[in-house]
Amino acid sequence: MEGVIWYQRDFEFQPRPNMRTFLHIGAANYKSFIWVNQKRICDHEGGFTPFDCEVTTALHAGSNFVVIAVDSTRDVDGIPSVGIDWFNYGGLTRDVSLVNLPTRFIDDYDVHLKHGPALSPGDTTLTGYVHVEGAPAGTPVSLRIPEAGVNTTVSTDASGLAPFEVRASSLTLWAPGTPKLYKVSLASGEDALTDDIGFRDIRVDGTRILLNGKAIFLEGANMHAEAPYRTGRVDNDEDVKNIFGFLKEMNANFVRLCHYPHDERMERAADRDGIMIWSEIPLWQHISFEKPAVYAKATFMLNEMIRRDRNKASVILWSVSNETPNNSTRTEFLKNLAKEARRLDPTRLITSALIGPHATGDQMVQNDRLADALDVVGQNEYIGWYEGKPEDADTMHWTLPQKPIVMSEFGAEVKQGDHGTKNQRWAEEQQVNVFEHQFVMINKIPQVRGVAPWVLMDFRSPTRNIPKLQDGFNRKGLIAEDGKKKQAFDLFRKVYQQHSVGKAE
Ligand code: GCB
Question: How do residues 385-404 score in pLDDT, each as one tens digit?
Fold first, then answer.
């Protein structure tokens, strides 16, 4: 069922002088319409990013009520568009809260390790900005990071922006083995907040990915925001703990959060646990690339995603899209979007998951010009499942851009507990076989810097309806939706433990 869900809530409220109040919506899929005390307050489009509606003047002392209508009907000009391979969970899918703030308040900030043309070892310069909404020029803003010896005051310009650059006494840089987070305190006038932030440097050098100057290899998995054990959207600490339990057991250092921004708890947990993240806007396969209004939506979603997570050290990659058709209209659209992502955040790597080419004999030539606009190229391919036989991978010769490549999707489908021979489709043994041949192929591509099988866990998808085999789930998971592991999970656990696939250099 898709359509409009209506929500209504009565609440008591006591306004105080010099206070502004906002309704914060963690995520609402897909279009939201909000009224407070019968007054239309705001609309929002986009199912996976947070937004705030100011309700200060709509509220009064005593009893108030809010009405939210959320329409999950798919729209050909939406992002995503009408065709998706996941369950379209509608309505309010994340937390909603009423937030009281002083009239001048900190609404945005960015605190990161300075990202110069090169990382000079031992450089501890932190830079970024604090934005104080409603502040006149010259408003003081204090920035304190006690553990790093930072205690400074800067002031806002006429737009409320206070850029800063400051030297920390010393820093332990954030990395999977050392997920060090610092308490960062910001204050301006009546407003003050604290955040836990890690500092690290991520960049590419030729075909290598460097984290804090050291070449790394991403050993990860893809995942949808499908809650383990219960299905539904991941939206609480327990779900997140279960997922990170799987990732750690698998010895992963990386996760691609598909195909849209997930609950912020995921980034928080990744920051704490030292797991690197690929974060993506829901620009999946076919959308209306020819329409300027759709481009505007894409930039809006990109903005909201980056704004929420720009202080999360775990996020190393912003992805602008997944498996889009290779034609000039789309290439122009996505090249511009990649440029926009880089403008919004020049400290991270920009990527996209490409699909195609199909094999010609034993040759696969990736000629998608979108790659020119990316720092890291994601390559999806399903040799042994949608295309050819598992062993075709052994002799497949790839021509890929001279950039770091992440093999961002590969896999095969099976229901947990179904066994057979290694060449029998829909058997756990065949899923393992597909991966083993993929590893042979991947180890021959010199510029591969990461792998992420499709997919960590089976997830609901109404298009997957083969009785007994799928029953409404995409079953390419290494783990079933009830938490039971397939044989392939163990394969990845060992491969990542021994680092036997891929190399950092
Ligand atoms: C893909 C898509 C992913 C699908 C998957 C599949 O290439 O990126 O969203 O779910 O294949 O299972 O077909």
Answer: 999 999 999 999 999 999 99
